[in-house]
Design goal:
The protein is of the alpha/beta class. The radius of gyration is 21 Å and the shape is globular. Helix 5 runs parallel beside helix 12 and helix 7 (163-175) packs parallel to helix 9 (194-200). A hairpin with a 3-residue loop joins strand 2 and strand 3 (45-48). The strands form two sheets. The chain has a six-stranded parallel β-sheet with strand order 6-5-7-8-10-9, sandwiched between helices. The mean pLDDT is 94. It has 13 helices and ten strands. 37% of the residues lie in helices and 16% in strands. The chain folds into two domains: 4-70, TPP-binding domain (Rossmann fold); 91-300, Thiamin diphosphate (ThDP)-binding fold, Pyr/PP domains (Rossmann fold, 3-Layer(aba) Sandwich).
Length: 302
């Protein structure tokens, strides 16, 4: 799901330190291609390539590794991060090509393209903390750049559905920054009552609900052809969500409510959000059911 320069850098590396990493199917490429070059450290044991060392913990490994680094003249290393993509990348090339002839239609990538540009243009990147749970949005959001340290909180390892909305209050109270949450509609339905907590504490967190009416991330792993055009390509019944009135829900829980269906409407609402100070906002972002971001497509074909 990462941007091209990051993928290239990782694929060319000859050693991978995986510290406390939970190896899931998200790391299938590593298992198939770089298993022998992986160093996996846990609280109980170490694995170096194909060899396991019981009783050697991550603490032992890190202390020895840092000591070894300090003994070398080149420590600390001077490195340069890969160049950042030039706007509108990485979003434009990763947006679903099915909707190329509808430029005002919101897609996953277009949402991030314009919302991240808004944050950058208004010098707000240092003022927000982004929270994400398990949804297609999480994988698209990994392409974001320019955020300050500790400002990207995602449930990438445990894949907790609904985490992003529930985490918003803690993220804002703990950091002193405005929570900028991007939720899938399926995940939001799990913990929508978290809006009440935000309202009770007068937090101006923003909850964007990417509203496509389906568990898109689940359907990717069930049948990718479901995203192809035509009525013959259907989502499985268990991946179709009920319809909610998000504006009524926002009112019930004490939040500001907005609904956007076009890029123009999205830009207008983003500007309105700047003026909200002591109340949460719920923004329903309507996208096509069959929008398949290329970040998810690449994961689906692995």
């Amino acid at each position: 799901a990462s941007i091209t320069s990051v993928r290239d850098l990782v694929q060319q590396a000859d050693c991978f330190l995986t510290l406390g990493t939970i190896i899931t199917d998200d790391y299938l490429w590593f298992i198939e291609n770089k298993y022998a070059q992986m160093v996996l450290a846990t609280t109980e044991e170490m694995r170096v390539g194909y060899f396991t060392y019981e009783g050697v913990t991550m603490k032992d490994f890190m202390e020895a590794l840092v000591q070894r680094f300090k003994q070398t003249k080149v420590y600390p290393l001077s490195t340069v991060a890969p160049p950042q993509p030039v706007y509108p990348e990485p979003w434009a090339s990763n947006s679903d090509p099915k909707f190329k002839d509808k430029p005002d239609l919101i897609t996953y990538n277009r949402f991030f393209q314009h919302s991240m540009k808004f944050l950058q243009d208004n010098n707000l990147l240092d003022d927000i903390v982004m929270t994400l749970g398990v949804s297609s949005s999480l994988y698209v959001a990994t392409n974001a750049y320019g955020l300050s340290q500790n400002s990207f909180i995602g449930s990438a390892a445990w894949q907790c559905i609904g985490f992003e909305t529930g985490a918003a209050s803690g993220a804002q109270l703990g950091s002193g920054k405005r929570a900028w949450t991007v939720a899938g509609d399926g995940g939001f339905m799990m913990v929508c009552q978290s809006l009440s907590t935000l309202a009770r504490n007068n937090l101006n967190a923003v909850i964007f609900v990417i509203s496509n009416g389906v568990y898109a991330i689940e359907q990717v792993y069930v049948d990718l052809t479901s995203f192809e055009p035509g009525p013959e390509h259907k989502f499985d019944a268990f991946d179709i969500l009920p319809k909610w009135d998000y504006m009524a829900l926002a009112q019930a829980f004490g939040a500001k409510g907005y609904r956007v269906t076009t890029i123009k409407e999205l830009k207008a609402v983003l500007n309105k959000l700047k003026r909200i100070t002591r109340q949460p906002a719920l923004v329903e972002v309507v996208i096509p059911e069959k929008d398949l971001p290329q970040q998810m497509y690449r994961l689906g074909i692995e």
